[in-house]
Amino acid sequence: MPRGRYSLHDPHDRTPLGEEHFHCAPGPSGWRYVSQRTTPSGDHAGSVDLALDDLGRPIRLELHAGAWQVRGAALDGVTWVRTDPTGSHAAEGNVRAHAFTGSSPAFLVALTRLLRLTPRSGSTRVRLVAFTDPVLAPLTVDQSWALVNSETHTTDNGPLTVDEYQVTALDTGERHGVHIAGDVVLAAPGVELEDLQTPPSVFP
Fold it and tell me: Which domain of life is it from (predicted)?
């Protein structure tokens, strides 16, 4: 069960946004990721709880940020309920999309589990519902993902395969790289792995 800590920052000006303390693990029905988020000053900022089925589809998502809350799942595309800070209003949404995304590194791993790309797959287009900070506002985005390189490195804990993805935002054409080993993000825009107490999981 990988357990560790990511630091989060603005990908454009590198303003610190806080940290995400996480643990995750594959299971008999898929994969689950749980984390607690803190502000740069160390105060509690929210949480992430994401569970995937064995095909990589989000069967349960629960996000908290401040007093906002989102619960969602893959249903007729993706469906979610967003609750306001007072708890008196709840707004439901549904989009014909493949999955969810957001600032948590969990969503990057989850999407690679869904796409199952190989270096020969070429680029794959996906539609995602992003929950944007700090109020978890839903935004539909289109991206293109391609696995451009996969290398196996020798470590003290055995071989470690690192996959490099190229991600393109289809509305702006902006491209960036994402490096993932198993179920741990090694590098991505706005994300740095600061501490990892146990090796990444190896998926079949």
Answer: Bacteria
For residues 86 and 193, give the distance between their C-alpha atoms in angstroms, rounded to a whole number: 34
Nearest to 61 by CA among 93, 99, 17, 118: 99
Higher per-residue confidence, 105 vs 86: 105
Between CA 73 and CA 94 the distance in angstroms is: 10
Q: What is the pTM of this model?
A: 0.94
Q: Is the pLDDT of residue 158 over 80?
A: no
**186 secondary structure, DSSP code:** E
Strands 99-102 and 175-181: unpaired
Helix (H) or strand (E) holding 138: strand 137-155
In whole angstroms, what is the distance from residue 80 CA to residue 175 CA?
Answer: 28
Q: What residue has token string 């089925």?
A: 53
- Written as one letter, the residue type at 135 is V
Tokens of 173: 């054409």
Phi, psi at 107, each rounded to 5°: -70, -30
- CA distance linking residue 50 with residue 33, whole number of Å: 5
Total length of the chain: 204
| pLDDT higher than 80, residue 135 | yes
Measured from the Cβ of residue 142, the count of other Cβ atoms closer than 10 Å reads 13
With the C-alpha atoms ordered 143, 172, 186, 25, is the resulting torsion angle positive or negative? Answer: negative
Q: Are 160 and 120 in contact (CB under 8 A)?
A: no
DSSP state for residue 39 in the 8-state scheme: -
